[in-house]
Specification:
2 helices; mainly alpha
Length: 58
């Protein structure tokens, strides 16, 4: 039975990939998830900076 990577948490997907290192599909799914996480983090950080720009002096 093929695992459903879309329903796995990042932790589950990482653990799966560590035990199935040659599974390209799992690798690319984890890479895509990490990219989305990074984009969301960057967006949140930029939003924070805009909201607090008056108190943050660079």
């Amino acid at each position: 039975m093929k695992p459903n990577f879309d329903t796995m948490s990042m932790t589950e997907l990482r653990a799966y990939l560590l035990s199935h290192r040659t599974n390209d599909e799992a690798f690319y799914k984890l890479a895509d998830s990490l990219e989305v996480t990074a984009e969301n983090s960057e967006s949140s950080f930029c939003h924070f900076l805009r909201r607090h720009s008056s108190i943050l002096k660079f």
